[in-house]
Amino acid sequence: MKLYDLLQDVSYSALSPADPEITDVIYDSRKVTQGTAFVCLKGYTSDGHQYAQSAVEKGAAALVISDDLDFEVPENVAVIKTDDTRLALALMSRRYFGVPEQELITVAITGTKGKTTTTAMIAEIFSQAGIMTGTIGTLGIVYGGNTYKTDNTTPESYEIQKAMRSMIDAGCKAMVIEASSIGLKHSRLAGMTFDAAIFTNFSADHIGGVEHKNMAEYLYCKSLLFRQCRRAAVNCDDPTWQAVTNDFKGDILTFGFSETAQLRAKNDRLLSENGYIGVHFETEGLKTLSPDVGVPGKFNAYNALAAIAATSFFDIPDKAILDGLRIAHVKGRVEPVKVPGNYSLLIDYAHNALSMINVLTTLREYHPNRLITLFGAGGNRPKVRRFEMGEVSGRLSDLSVITEDNSRFEDVMDIIADIEVGLHKTDGKYVVVPKRKEAIRYCMLNAQDGDIIVLCGKGHEDYQEIKGVKYHMDERELIAEIIEEEKLG
Predict the structure, then answer these.
(1) pTM, entire model
(2) Hey, what's the torsion of the CAs at 284, 285, 288, 290, to 10 degrees?
(3) Residue ranges of the domains in the chain?
């Protein structure tokens, strides 16, 4: 593609007349090859302008800059100057990959909490309706049964556009993305028009340092999403919803428990039966439904409402909504694993005291026969974390099962001894089973009717790191092996 075709949406000045054929759009100088356009981004710790000369030496056909360069650029290399190279990267990437959002149903979700869970719910509902869907967010880029890790919840614009094109090539008809405030602030979604944008909620987070200078900026950045969508749905129980959608010019679909909501929830209650735990509620107004949601915690009624609101824009059958909400889950986030027996087994990424408090407090609300928490702690990390985790589990669990978790270069038994320091501050019962598979086996073989067992720490990870080596270890596979070995089926 010719350079000026890529630049058709960008405001710029051309500092040279060259209009080369561009083979790729690159913002990491290490990836520059012959014929690429190198976009000089300014980051928190580095400035791409410093690598412009290196990019030219590697064969870059064009440079996109915002600052003057301190070297003489060859005449055959195009130089494009623009005020915001990060915005330029987004607009150029969108053109380079053929404006992929025009070939997909697109939904973007913003809010402080609930983005990942709501994304999973919407994707599952689409899937139940026969619409193959890709997602982009905290867990990475996910489509076609594969997960590709990313550095950020909302990746760089080039990665988003590339992923969308790959999704289309794989047969996807829809894409759901978590739109973080940082991603919006840095123009990672710039140029796109989403079919629907969803607002979940707003609370203090990401303030200070290199993120947002104050709550006002944080709220403003979230509001940017509603300048680039065709439809909007918002949680009207959150008092900031009008400020967030101030720039949206169309009709807004409201959801919540409030009497004023267009999609209203009522009669919510916790579900715990035959190993299935979640939340049930009813809706009225826009839709009359009675969904069961397979994710624990009453707050997930809000996430489910957001998913219902989002998918209602696309004429999705009610059956697909109900089926999707019943089975939707986020990998590694209170993820249910089907097991024989009348108990619940969950996998969760909680790997510090605060996240363990959140998970265990939520599960306590289900009044299990026993709440059993299996966990370890990472090696070569502050010991205070281990003390705190031990104390939290000892206080909130009926039984703690202490085991390994990425011991790295430390001895597992030394880590376990530190966890026990915290446990000894409580009167909580615990056992030590150093090998993680054997610890899981212990939990399963000793499970009683009505127990909730939560495996904390690994979540979506599929490895165990020991002495600098990452060994494959997926807890879902371990559970399946135990069921087979113990003939529990």
Answers:
(1) 0.94
(2) -30
(3) 3-96, 100-327, 335-485
